[in-house]
Specification:
Bifunctional metallophosphatase/5'-nucleotidase, 5'-Nucleotdase_C_sf, alpha/beta, seven-stranded mixed beta sheet, disordered N terminus, 23% helix, Purple Acid Phosphatase, chain A, domain 2, 5'-nucleotidase,  domain 2, 2 domains, UDP-sugar diphosphatase activity, 606 residues, 5_nucleotidase/apyrase
Length: 606
């Protein structure tokens, strides 16, 4: 693959000189002709029956162009003695260079992603509606991606703009004389259709081909996307079953003579270990992983040869047998560009399919994007260019901390940063004329990072910049204050561990004064211990009405909390980001930095 965009554009011009008939045929079947990667060794089509295709993949990049801070910027490596080693990882300068190095010597190489490339992004990308990330993905030669739920954060029109290009309808163009070009790669939305027309929002599949090798890619997001995205973002769209959709388009591809197929699925699983090199095929194939992807993998047609997955931000390279009992790889490369997966697909020229035996599936391995090697110079320039535009906003100090305050990086049900955010939302809405809130709740998925004590730039250790605060709270959700009865509040707390959250509990972060016991030895609603839920030491009264603050996503029933949709007497306050930055400024200074909370509001029984 080329190390700069210029050779790629030249290759495209050559590809574009196909005859009109050939081009029309390619368009009819969704074929994307791909030029030979620069620096690769040519292969002779007739030199052997099989050829190895290198599939490089990643997922859940979330606009992390710069190396992520705190635990979000590390991976855990399992050592021979059973201990874990922490390795700093990520940053698009290193990811691009790693991919370019990996492609060398591979005449057949394709790069794919499994959604959430954008959305919930740090300020450097999010401030510019993720145009910098799409530009970076073009430069590192991404060939195809599925959509994820976060691709819908700003709605269908914005996702379409990401694909087709054009300046933002409100903010306009960010650089004089430059118009956003859009993604060079196709976004695949096989299971996302328009409610009125029934047609996929964007392309459902594409076909990568090179020197007689053809591989089809089908892209889907999780069926439950509407449950975890603001309603406005998915208005007018339907989200269909992942398995049924993949199986449908696998048949379409087969009828077109495309037998080798890879599914890009923005849904994932939970391996038994967080170490990136954990063997999730121990003791048997797929035994070390659980979650939605396991059932999906067991039911996706055998016509599909490999599954590239995401959404859970976990790392795994598993082998889960397909419905016919044949082994099939299921992979995920964590998140934020900290890893990439390398999968070998052995293509049979006679059958036009991937060779999969009953003994061994195509090999797959996750590689760490370490920060010890060289950086991709074009990515360094890209980051510097956008940082210059963002600097007046990003570098403004908004607070001071005395140590790391863990948010995304903790495995505990209650995160110290979750407490800070909940307290900030309560403080912003407590006054009678600001909503009159008595308590606040925060969904854990909305906490996108940690607050790291060590300086990321020149601001100094312990200084929290606006850019860092934005990385933690990037959605700019408005805080809602609603009336909930004690019964509704208790039901909402029970929904943390029941319904769609039964398998993977979503423990809400709570403001100071709200306490309860979470008993993980029990099951279902009983995990929220009756009588333990108290506000300022007084048990919640089922018949009493409470004023509860939460972001608009949660107030709309998002993340599997339908009880909160029934809230009455709604007040719309400041944004969650404004509340967060205002709280940091009010409660910290250089001489009196904010200490990490004890995170002792939820008593956990294991």
């Amino acid at each position: 693959m080329p190390s700069t965009p210029q050779p790629r554009r030249a290759a495209r011009r050559l590809t574009g000189r196909l005859s009109a008939a050939a081009a029309a045929l390619a368009a009819a079947v969704g074929v994307a002709a791909t030029a030979l990667p620069a620096g690769a060794v040519s292969a002779h089509p007739g030199s052997g029956r099989t050829v190895d295709v290198q599939l490089l993949s990643f997922n859940d990049f979330h606009g992390n162009l710069e190396p992520p801070q705190g635990s979000s910027g590390t991976v855990q490596e399992l050592e021979p003695d059973g201990s874990k080693k922490t390795i700093p990882a990520g940053g698009v300068e290193y990811l691009a260079q790693a991919l370019r190095t990996a492609r060398k010597g591979h005449p057949y190489s394709v790069t794919a992603a499994a959604g959430d490339l954008i959305g919930a992004s740090p300020l450097l990308s999010g401030l510019f509606h993720d145009e910098p990330t799409i530009e970076a993905m073009n430069k590192l030669h991404l060939d195809v991606t599925s959509v994820g739920n976060h691709e819908f954060d700003e709605g269908r029109a914005e996702l379409t703009r990401m694909q087709k290009g054009g300046c933002h309808p409100k903010d306009g163009c960010y650089e004089k004389g430059k118009k956003f070009a859009g993604a060079d790669f196709p976004y695949l939305t096989a299971n996302v259709t328009d409610e009125k027309t029934g047609k996929p929002l964007l392309k459902p599949y594409t076909v990568w081909q090179h020197k007689g090798v053809k591989i089809g890619f089908i892209g889907v997001t999780l069926k439950g996307t509407p449950d975890i995205v603001n309603a406005a973002g998915v208005k007018g769209l339907k989200f269909h079953d992942e398995v049924a959709t993949i199986n449908k388009y696998a048949k379409v591809l087969n009828r077109q003579g495309v037998k080798a197929i890879v599914a890009l699925i923005h849904e994932g699983g939970m391996p038994a270990s967080t170490a990136y090199n954990y063997n999730c095929d121990s003791p048997g194939p797929g035994d070390g992983i659980s979650g939605p992807i396991t059932e999906i993998a067991k039911h996706v047609t055998p016509q599909v040869d490999a599954l590239v997955t995401g959404h859970t931000h976990q790392s795994y390279t598993c082998t889960i047998p397909d419905p016919s009992g044949r082994p099939r790889t299921v992979t995920s490369a964590a998140s934020f560009g900290r890893l990439y997966t390398e999968t070998t697909l052995t293509y049979d020229r006679r059958t036009h399919d991937i060779v999969r035996t009953s003994v061994k599936a195509p090999g797959a391995v996750n590689h760490v994007v370490e920060r010890t090697g060289p950086k991709a110079a074009d990515m360094t320039s890209l980051i510097a260019r956008w940082n210059k535009l963002a600097a007046p906003v990003a570098n403004r100090p908004v607070g001071h901390i005395s140590a790391d305050i863990d948010g995304r990086g903790t495995d505990a049900p209650e995160a110290p940063l979750g407490d800070v955010i909940a307290d900030a939302q309560l403080e912003a809405t407590r006054a009678a004329d600001k909503g009159g809130a008595q308590l606040a709740l925060m969904n854990p998925g909305g906490i996108r990072s940690d607050l790291a004590y060590k300086a990321a730039g020149s601001e100094g250790d312990g200084v929290v910049t606006y850019g860092e605060a934005f990385t933690v709270q990037p959605f700019t959700n408005m805080i809602n204050v609603v009336d909930l009865t004690g019964t509704q509040l208790l039901t909402g707390l029970q929904q943390q561990v029941t319904g769609p959250n039964a398998a993977e509990p979503k423990i809400l972060q709570v403001s100071k004064g709200l306490t309860y016991t979470l008993d993980l030895t029990k099951s279902g609603a009983d995990r929220i211990v009756k009588g333990s839920v108290k506000l300022n030491g007084t048990p919640i009264d089922p018949a009493k009405t409470y004023r509860v603050a939460m972001n608009e996503f949660l107030a709309g029933g998002g993340d599997g909390f339908p009880a909160f949709k029934d809230g009455k007497n709604k007040y719309v306050g400041a944004s969650d980001l404004d509340a967060f930055t205002g709280y940091l400024t009010a409660h910290s200074s250089a001489s009196a930095p904010l200490d990490p909370p004890k995170a002792d509001r939820i008593t956990v029984v294991k």
